[in-house]
Specification:
The protein has 135 residues and is α+β, with helices and mostly antiparallel strands. The protein has helices at 2-29, 105-115, and strands at residues 31-43, 55-57, 63-72, 75-91, 96-103, 130-133. Strands 1, 2, 3, 4, 5 and 6 form a 6-stranded antiparallel beta sheet that branches. Strand 2 (55-57) and strand 3 form a beta hairpin. It starts with a helix and ends with a strand.
Length: 135
């Protein structure tokens, strides 16, 4: 009698563990790949153009390539590409595929401003890399 109850209970636990593991992997881990992401940093005044084409490194070690300096609607913008990790994961509510990118935004902006001749203080608490949704 005890063996007859043990098999369905074991099967239920196994199926439950499989569902929980698959849900965790698809929502938290996802598919990851290394690549580049385009970012734009707004400057308070006209930035130096000497940084265009340079590779920079943020305090956390991320590689940044400054690609252009533009002026749009009276705002000075520096365009750059940052190297990092892309994550494609399943968001459950509402159910959809979510594309996100890991970067430390305050540290990245500080690095680009410093390289462009805009003096600014290093953020006291950058918080490290965080996932930013790109959808």
């Amino acid at each position: 009698m005890a063996v007859q109850l043990f098999k369905p209970t074991l099967a239920t636990l196994g199926v439950s563990a499989l569902i929980v593991t698959c849900t965790y992997v698809s929502t938290e881990v996802g598919l990851r790949s290394e690549g580049w992401h385009e970012v734009t940093v707004e400057m308070p005044r006209n930035p130096g153009y000497g940084t265009v084409g340079q590779s920079l490194f943020t305090p956390d070690g991320s590689k940044v390539l400054v690609t252009a300096v533009t002026k749009e609607n009276g705002k000075h913008l520096v365009h750059a590409k940052v190297e990092g990790t892309h994550r494609y994961a399943l968001a459950l509510f509402p159910t959809r595929w979510e594309h996100s990118f890991a970067m430390d935004t305050p540290s990245l902006e500080w690095t680009v401003r410093q390289a462009s001749g805009q003096s600014s203080t290093l953020p006291s608490q950058s918080g490290g890399q965080r996932w930013h949704v790109l959808n």
